[in-house]
Amino acid sequence: MIRKFALSLSVASFAASVSGPAPAADDAELERVRNIVSGMFEMIDPEDVRSSPVDGWYMIQKGSIVAYVSADGRYLLQGDMIDLDHQVNLSEAARNNSRRELMASVSDDEAIVFSPKQKKYRVTVFTDTECTYCRRLHRQIDEYLAHGIEVRYLLYPRNGPASPAWNTAEAVWCANDRNDALTLAKLDKEFETHSCDSSAVQHHYVLGRDVGLTGTPAIVLDDGTLIGGYVTPDQLKAQLERGAAQ
User: Fold this and answer.
1) 14 pLDDT exceeds 90?
2) Which of 20, 34, 87, 122 is paired with 172 by a 20 to 30 Å CA distance?
């Protein structure tokens, strides 16, 4: 919904809602821009609009969606803002912060956790039981664990509600042994399950949309970095080591 909003915004209609010259950048100006944006788009809260590093421009962020609006309301930009002096993607940094907070809000009880004997790192993996590379990743789960990487799975059936993968995800969640059920599901084998509150699948799915998934598997590091697609155990370990050294 938010992605659709971001891609279909009309600069003309946005500008038409604002009149008069922009005052100097201050709290009053920020409040004015917040009121304009949140008034036009019901899914945007005032706190989703904040100052940016560039004078006269404000950042709009809703989950992984980042855009920029000029203080006079005339221009809207979609794309990444880069600090060339420091070689930092400021928009991606904002997305990382959002993803980090989202992942921190997910308890282990809300995930399917494969944990090593000695945990050095933790990642959250959005997975689809029918996804080829999700299955490939899971076939190597023991190798990830051997590197001290804890894998927290969240269920993300790519085809959405009422799809076969969604039904399987709900069955996995309702199994007595979710870890075993997930493994068997990815092998196209039967497993025992029962009726239960499977709303966690919907919650996982919404989280996936919020972090900006475009496919599975998707690996989110604790610092909010998003790795789209499969990476080998050695590659993931190397990236985690680099992150820990920074």
Assistant:
1) no
2) 122
Task: Based on the residue annotation, tell me whether 134 is a catalytic residue of this protein.
Answer: yes
> pLDDT tens, 126-165?
999 999 999 999 999 999 999 999 999 999 999 999 899 9
Sequence-distant (6+) residues with CB within 8 A of 93 are none
Lowest mean pLDDT among 36-40, 65-69, 136-140, 141-145: 36-40
**Selected catalytic residue, list 131, 135, 152, 178:** 131
Half-sphere exposure of 14 (CA within 13 A, CB side): 22
Is 131 an active-site residue?
yes
Asked if 129 and 169 touch (Cβ cutoff 8 Å), the reply is yes
Q: The tokens of 78 are what?
A: 């979609």
Q: Rounded to a whole number, what is the distance in angstroms from the first to the last CA of the chain?
A: 36
Q: Of residues 95, 99, 122, 134, which has the active-site annotation?
A: 134
Q: Could you tell me where in the chain the CATH 3.40.30.10 domains are found?
A: 103-245
Q: What is the CA radius of gyration of the chain?
A: 21
Is 128 considered catalytic here?
yes
Whether 196 is catalytic is no
pLDDT at 34 over 70: yes
